[in-house]
Fold this sequence. Notes:
By secondary structure, the protein is of the alpha+beta class. It has helices at 3-40, 43-46, 50-59, 75-84, 166-171, 216-229; strands at residues 90-95, 102-107, 129-131, 143-147, 174-178, 183-195, 244-251, 257-265. Helices cover 31% and strands 21% of the residues. Strand 5 and strand 6 (183-195) form a beta hairpin.
Amino acid sequence: MSKSSRKFKIFILIILLVLIVCSILYILKYYNDINNAKKQSNLLNEISIDKTIATQKENNTIENNNIESEPIKSERILKLEELQKENSDIKAWIEIENTQISYPVLQYSDNDYYMNHNYKKEQTIIGSIFLDKNYCWDPPSSNLLIYGHNIKNGTMFQNLLNYKSKTFYEQHPTIRFTTNTEDANYEIISAFTSRVYYKYEQNVFRYYYFINANNENEFNEFIQNAKSSSFYDTGKTAKYGDQLMTLSTCSYHVKDGRFVVIAKKST
Length: 267
């Protein structure tokens, strides 16, 4: 064997070793991120708020005056506020009971950051559940457009794909959404598959552009498209002025596919 041939084989061996090590490190990071995502879904249950509740009750006590005290916030809202001390980008908590969907909802100045960062701002493959950067809280936009990855082990927004079944919908008809001001339920009105459309395509439902309705016609058109695209009729609809929520994740039925669930806040 020539000297140049030996060098080439050594070079190939080094490349293979590097690839193997990188693959192992990637796999280890992936499973570490998955484990962290599972822990994250139980985060609210682990937050202790006894002292916070006691302080709030004390501050709300009326002493020798006629000032009306503010209503005591729910335990869930107080826990959210504790979590927000760690990261002010946390805007809410979303949960669908009896599924793995139970996560903080984050919002940033762009829609890229939380695609690969967790609520602790640590880089992660699975990212976070995050609200579109263009959603305005005051006054509130028409539609909470929320994104999350479709992770095969069931974490993040993977469980949304179960809404293809009407039976699953009937067992999970609502989404719980907690903010600093309310602990609300949203009734699901539609579930469907879609994709990211090319600019030249006409007469298509680009649900991902709808955050705020400029008028009643725009709102009604969105609802009509959502209902007509749905796998089944939920018997629910929405009227102009209702607060909407759209959950979006990747779907692999087509290139750039999406799975979408649309809901309205219960009155």
